[in-house]
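Board work, copied verbatim: Beta-fructofuranosidase
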Amino acid sequence: MLELPDSWVWDFWFAHDGDQYHLFFLYASRALHDPSRRHGRASIGHAVSDDLRDWTRVADALVHGDRPAFDDAATWTGSVVQGPDGTWHMFYTGASERDGVLIQSIGVATSRDLVSWEKYDGNPVASADPRWYEKYDGSTWFDEAWRDPWVFEDPGGDGWHMLITGRANHGPVDDRGVVGHARSRDLLQWEVQPPLSEPGAGFGHLEVFQVEVVEGQVVLLFNCLRNELSAAKKATSGSGGVWSLTADSVTGPFDISKATPLTDDSLYVGRLVRDVDGAWVMLAFHNEGPDGFIGAISDPMPVYLTPDGLALKPA
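↓ predict structure ↓
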């Protein structure tokens, strides 16, 4: 487990260089006292491990930029992929504060060694397109949702895909969560596409996507706490947390109404990764406990495939 004595740790993502697991994670000082303030103080930390259990912290990966940068308030959740030339690309969320509201967009930084990162001069590379996605206007949601990029190569070799936390520009205010989508040929120039799901599935937002093929079946993971479910969904669902569903293709479309909960609100931001034996496991951060927010990353939890998605194997 990764737990820092002086900081809360929450969202995270992985890279594997062939020898070690690299964990990139959001953290903020516990000196803030109120964990709800952590989002505006987030930096991206970095740790390495041989077994997904014992972690050694190394130098931080990224911090927020200076005004008026797209990430001048905070750097949030992302993902890492390696390009054809061996360069690592970290896609991450940049938050910029405008009149007390955090406006989100996607940026990228590159590295040859997963340690030293350089932000791309052309950032941001993707922002919410009002043709399909909600822009903040003060009358609907509490922020402009365009974050948590999950980037993967097209299975047919036709460039790259990015799944993004976004909200549709229509439908009930509490039920607009969709799978945002963008495409690229070169990992630097991105074109925003229509969403890969429809609003109205019961979620105010769908956070931190990951799509993988598990035991031959495409599985989509996303996250939504109970407070961000639609009113109708709250009436039928006991809790939020990590959710999963099966699909026919890694590029969608995704029927979010089929999603089933994998955890409750005590665990959040589930991430799938293959352990040293090649088996799929999930890590998540410890969210709510008896005394409030915890802020530490779990040990690996084995998962198995069900007809509806994933489930945790009993301890």
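The chain has one helix and 21 strands.
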